[in-house]
Amino acid sequence: MGKKLKVGVVGLGRLGRAYAQYFAYHIPEARLVAVADADASTLNAVAQELGIEKAFTDYHDLIKLREVEAIAVLTPTKLHRDVIVAAAEAGKVIFSEKPLSISLSESIEIMQVIDKTKVFFHMGFMRRYDPGYAAAKARIDAGEIGTPVVIKCSSRDPYRPSLEYANPVNSGGLLIDMGIHDFDLVRWFMGEVKSVYTVGGTLAYPEMKQIGDIDNAVVNMYFADGALGVVDLSRNGVYGYDIRTEILGTNGTLQIGYLRETPILVMKKEGIMHDTVPYFFERFEKAYVAQLKAFVRTYLDGKAPSITCADGVAALKVSLAATQSFNERRPVDL
């Protein structure tokens, strides 16, 4: 049997818990050896479920373990900087979930630490590993639709998250926490963003005004080569979890995404019906696993990470510019 990368997961919220399970059961070339979370009850539950003996309420204790070679950072975004810097200074291999930070200065600091320590760092943008998005990228690179000239992205959650999570102080708000996925994709498909103009509002959940965030936004953008883009974000896609992208090229168009989760139609005289995608785990679980497999395999093969710290900084710059545009009611150049 070949070498296995020994991984510690820091942060065991809904996504961190899933990642711990993926490392434990779905990634043959990795072995989960330690977990950390500030909440003792959550920590103990996950450690017991996965049979992990090394479990810590202080992530520093996990990072100190010699046997832990790699750290997966799944903490709340506002804590990413501290965990990543500590892991980098300890010489660990690092995977970080998006966003890199909600602060540009912190993100640049993280990138500088990664450059200085020269540790392997993989940024988490799982949509690039979704079969549909990966196939679209391959077709575009092969010239199948000619030159891409317009991209349209829609991301709609079926309901809002908790106010604590949605609070921009904790997550960055709609345009950073949610929009950064699409801003990474538009860069991946179309190149660098030149300018953005955002309109938005608190239209479906008035209680979100308490925390200073919006629940719907539309971001128009120009790319460096003059191509056009639009991203619409919504917390109230009540019919289901709806993630779709359309890319118009000079020789054709690509549409990515789907609404029907189960391949069945119910046809009656009242109408034709089907179900919808429940939420992000159902839509992107394969992408999450593929992303972590790529992280482990790329490191073990001695190759460069496919998504870098610089990608995290660049996507955050677009998110922050979009937020500034909304707040100042004007176009913002990057």
The outline comes out as globular
- Work out the radius of gyration: 20 Å
Question: What would the CATH topology of the largest domain be?
Answer: Dihydrodipicolinate Reductase, domain 2
In the CATH hierarchy, what is the class of the largest domain?
Answer: Alpha Beta
End-to-end gap: 49 Å
**Assembly type of the shown chains?**
single chain
CATH architecture label name of the largest domain = 2-Layer Sandwich
Strand % is: 15-25%
Number of strands: 15
Let me know the largest β-sheet: 7 strands, mixed
User: How many discrete domains?
Assistant: 2
CATH superfamily of the largest domain: Dihydrodipicolinate Reductase, domain 2
Structure described in brief:
This protein is an alpha/beta fold. Helices cover 39% and strands 25% of the residues. Helix 4 runs parallel beside helix 5 and helix 5 runs antiparallel to helix 11.
What key attributes describe this structure?
7-stranded mixed β-sheet; single chain; 11 helices; globular; 6-stranded parallel β-sheet; 2 domains; 334 residues; Rossmann fold; alpha/beta; Dihydrodipicolinate Reductase, domain 2
Characterise the protein shown here.
- The protein is of the alpha/beta class and 334 residues long.
- It has two domains: 115 residues, 3-Layer(aba) Sandwich (Rossmann fold); 170 residues, 2-Layer Sandwich (Dihydrodipicolinate Reductase, domain 2).
- 39% of the residues lie in helices and 25% in strands.
- It is built from eleven helices and 15 strands.
- The strands form three sheets. A seven-stranded mixed sheet has the order 12-11-7-10-9-8-15. Strands 3-2-1-4-5-6 form a six-stranded parallel sheet, with helices on both faces.
- The chain is globular, with a radius of gyration of 20 Å.
- The relative contact order is 0.15.
